[in-house]
Amino acid sequence: MIPEEIPKELEEMVCEVYSTGPKRYVLTLSSYERIREAAKTLFNNGFRITTITTLDRGFYFELLYHFVKKNIIASIKILVPKGESKVPSITPIIPGANWLEREVRDLFGIEFVEHPEPKRVVLPPDWKDKPPLRKPVAPGLPETYANYLMSLATKAALASLSGLAKRRRKQMGLPEIVTPVHESKEVIEEVKKISKELKVDRKVPIGGE
């Protein structure tokens, strides 16, 4: 349930809410693709963005957009697979996010789609090396595995269907979307445990394999 201090319009975008202190809330979106919509909702209700925190979780990024209104702090959390590394920019609707997103792009290599000024702000303009704070997915695993691991950790399913598979299903008169293998919390926690034991969620040193 959305706390009373938070706009109710966010309720259908959020899959998890928890408090970190008095009037401090973390709201996890059901999809990172809805970040612009969620940010616009908060902004239109008097919240102002202060910063963006980025955590490299091994095979995905965790981004926290911190918004403040008087003594209320609302942090919107999104999880982004490294295989994607693209997030809708909120700068077109909140200009104050301009440098915040550019800093994240420089340091972690996350692209902010439709950012009006995607220039470097931390690194030199001619920087060609890997983003300095971006770590490998996991020892011995390429970034192309990130989507599969992310899907396992959040849905207990191997991967979402490709566009080709969806089109074929539609041609056959079947629904484009397949129900996830299992969505019970017990199964998802078991998958997360296995992922941890296999060390696919472990943060490793920069440049490690």
SSE class: alpha/beta
- By CATH reckoning, the class of the largest domain would read Alpha Beta
CATH superfamily of the largest domain: NADH:ubiquinone oxidoreductase Nqo5 subunit
Low-confidence sequence ranges = 179-183, 203-209
- If strands are numbered along the chain, what order do they take across the biggest sheet? 1-2-5-4-3
**What is the CA-CA span between the terminal residues?**
42 Å
- The helix-strand sequence is EEHEEEEHEHHH
Q: Kindly identify the CATH topology of the largest domain.
A: Beta Polymerase, domain 2
The portion of residues assigned to helices is 25-40%
**Alpha plus pi helix count:** 5
CATH architecture of the largest domain: 2-Layer Sandwich
| Mean of residue pLDDT values | 81
Chain-wise SSE layout:
Elements: E1 14-21, E2 24-29, H1 35-44, E3 48-56, E4 60-69, E5 72-81, E6 86-88, H2 98-108, E7 111-113, H3 146-155, H4 163-171, H5 185-197
Parallel strand pairs: 2-5, 6-7
Antiparallel strand pairs: 1-2, 3-4, 4-5
Helix pairs in contact: 3-5
Can you offer a commentary on this structure?
The chain has 5 helices and 7 strands. Helix 3 packs across helix 5. The C terminus is likely disordered. The longest helix is centred in the last third of the chain and has 13 residues. The chain has 2 domains: 106 residues, Beta Polymerase, domain 2, CATH 3.30.460.80; 55 residues, no CATH class. With 209 residues, the chain is α/β, with parallel strands linked by helices. It is globular, with a radius of gyration of 18 Å. The N and C termini lie far apart (42 Å). The strands form 2 sheets. The chain has a 5-stranded mixed β-sheet with strand order 1-2-5-4-3. It has a two-stranded parallel sheet with strand order 6-7. Helix content is 25%, strand content 23%.
